[in-house]
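task queued by scheduler; priority normal; single chain, no ligands, no partner chains; default sampling; output format set to structure tokens
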Amino acid sequence: MKTTRLAALGLGFLFASTLSVFAKIERVVERSFTVQPGGTLRVETQGGDIRVALSSDNVVKITARQKIRASSDAEADELLKKFDLTLEQNGNDVAALAKYEKPPMGFHFGSWPPVTVDFSVTVPAGYLTDLRTSGGDIVVGDVSGKVNARTSGGGIRLGKIGAPIDARTSGGSISLEEARGAVKLSTSGGNVNVGRVVGDADLGTSGGSIKIETVEGALRASTSGGSIRAGIVGPLKEDSSLNTSGGSIRVTVDRSAAFHLDASTSGGEVDAEGLTITLDRSNRGRTKLSGAVNGGGAQLKLRTSGGDVVVRTR
């Protein structure tokens, strides 16, 4: 096991700058670990950002940018005595962990912790990532391994991911360019914007809209605060559902796709022009439409109480 532990006075820092009183002093620590594809990168930080990109070799390179709320280098050194920065390799796995001790009684929450760390990491192809921050953004580039991401105070941006994704935030929006695998994205404070998913997609937000350009598997999308736009490619092999209480729903499907449509709204109209549909008995009206499309199949359930439902073919 290769281990680097840095918990006190300026070990191995490459850069330091002091600004005005009570501004931030920055110190940068860098470490590299030789690994093989298939390992896992674990990153945890309090209040900082996490960025992950693909490397061109079998090396995990970590840059930890420490931001210290202090008026002098001496004060920064004292604060670092209560701070633990751990960069370590265990077999084929690598961990980058930043943690400050618990705040004292009566300490103002907005200024805690006095030391935060932004992590920038490059990983080999096929490397898995498990990323967690309590107060920053998470950005992952074009990587081929599975991605788990959690933040309670920022947004999540994902590039072209070659494996399943599970990403959640309670304080920002989520965007994804492409995924080759099942996707689960959830936020309570922003929009969800997705490009292409080759697999199933489970998307949720309570505070924004949802847009997915193309999905090639089952789609589950739910929001209480915005509209939903979705493009479903190929046959519907499994049931899909789209629900919103605060906006409209617009879905595009292949002209030849066979499925059972169950669409209704209490705040607008249902429009499914161009579909070849055999209506269920008593299930066609201005606000409701139910029937077998191209002979029927898996169910496409669309529900909104705040707008129109529109289904179109490509």
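post-processing summary
- The first strand starts at residue 2 and ends at 6.
- The radius of gyration is 24 Å.
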